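B., you asked whether I could sanity-check this one before it goes into the benchmark set. Here's the sequence:
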Amino acid sequence: MKDIRFQLLGIPRIFLNGEEQFFSFAKVNALLYYLAVNGTVDRETAASLLWENKKTQVAKKNLRNTIYQVNKALDADLIICPNRNLLTLNPEIAISSDILSFLASPKTHLSLYQGEFLQGFYLKSGEAFELWLAKVRLQCEQLYLKTSYQKIEEGMAADAVEDTEEHLKQLIERDEFEEKTISS
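And here's what the prediction gave me:
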């Protein structure tokens, strides 16, 4: 069985059976990142998200080509179409992602937050994608900060000096000008 792992917190990376995969086109990556977070998307939304300035027919053709490129490059049907309108990641492939683990259990998986969501990733002419990206980045950052402060408070209450110091250092590295962190 093939294993796909998405590392999306920090600089994005995709691994197939432990080996990093590279795609030539940002839109291929963007579609994979979107599906890794959302699981399923309808074709119309995916096409308009990635090719918002193209006519619908051209955008859908580009989407079909992108799906083909992904599946061919990975030698697996990673993106499948359970019906004419939906795209989803193949449930027969073992798929994991740091962001889903982090969002499901931030206290347990706080260390997975290695930087902002899709750090450094940019999609040319992709305003709709950038809006989605900004929303997810904000959600992750706020959850990271909230959980970090909770862990610091718990550490201070339990006199766990080393853990508390480590969380404070991590927060300062993320934002050295955050007054709440420095004054803690």
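One thing to flag: Strands lie at 3-7, 13-16, 19-21, 40-42, 79-80, 86-89, 94-97. Otherwise nothing jumped out at me.
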